[in-house]
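Q: what sequence does this backbone want?
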């Protein structure tokens, strides 16, 4: 994989002002995911702030990965925005590792195929 590739990462904020430092933090954290899995087409991170009077500020980080095959979605809640992003990236990383492990097991253990018809012999 070429390290000069610009990955398609979309960062959006809901009820939250995205500062340049927060965008940089998200980009640095998600770079690990792009290094692990080169077949990621696009990744979208949504950061949401919920200001309840009873519980204070609650941050929700949602991640959507478009990849070859089924898309992957994860959501994490925390009391700090940076903590929520870190937990989200860790969760998505575990999901990608599990997906990779399942594909590797499937590739290394092919299933036998039974044919009803008789295979013709090669004529020399």
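A:
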């Amino acid at each position: 994989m070429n390290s000069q590739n610009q990955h398609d990462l979309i960062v959006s904020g809901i009820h939250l002002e995205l500062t340049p430092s927060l965008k940089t933090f998200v980009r640095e954290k998600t770079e690990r995911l792009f290094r692990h899995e080169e077949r990621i087409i696009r990744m979208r991170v949504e950061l949401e702030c919920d200001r309840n009077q009873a519980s204070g500020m609650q941050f929700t980080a949602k991640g959507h990965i478009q990849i070859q095959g089924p898309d992957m979605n994860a959501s994490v809640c925390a009391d700090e925005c940076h903590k929520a992003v870190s937990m989200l990236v860790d969760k998505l990383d575990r999901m990608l590792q599990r997906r990779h492990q399942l594909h590797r097991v499937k590739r290394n253990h092919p299933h036998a195929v039974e044919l009803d018809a008789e295979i013709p012999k090669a004529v020399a």
